[in-house]
Amino acid sequence: MLLIDDDVDDRMIFGDVLKELVPDIIYNEAINGEDALTKLGNGLLPDIIFVDLNMPRIDGKQFLAEIQKLEQLRHIPVIIYTTSSHESDKKETRALGAAYFLTKPNSLHELNLVLKGILERTIAYEVK
Length: 128
Known about the structure:
Elements: E1 2-4, H1 8-21, E2 28-30, H2 33-41, E3 49-51, H3 60-68, E4 78-82, H4 87-95, E5 100-103, H5 108-122
Parallel strand pairs: 1-2, 1-3, 3-4, 4-5
Helix pairs in contact: 1-5, 2-3
């Protein structure tokens, strides 16, 4: 799994909830789309990618557009994980190939439930 988010607190919370759900998951982080593309170019091949929309350098939409150009990455489900709830962002990211659009939940419990559902549907992880 790869989470791309420039907010260190959001990465920490996401990682904590994810490790609680799937303790043996291999979890990677990137601080923006540019960092993620470098890691993916160096051989990282996650089963699923979560990406924030608003980041410096290469944002979430630009990242989506870039990985759609790469045959070896195009099949990876990408889930938008953002504070935005704008319908225009949902439509645009869907058109760019996003599998899901997830507005960041307000509580750890809600994040736990949402991640559990996504993991079970998307990549069939054994989730607690």
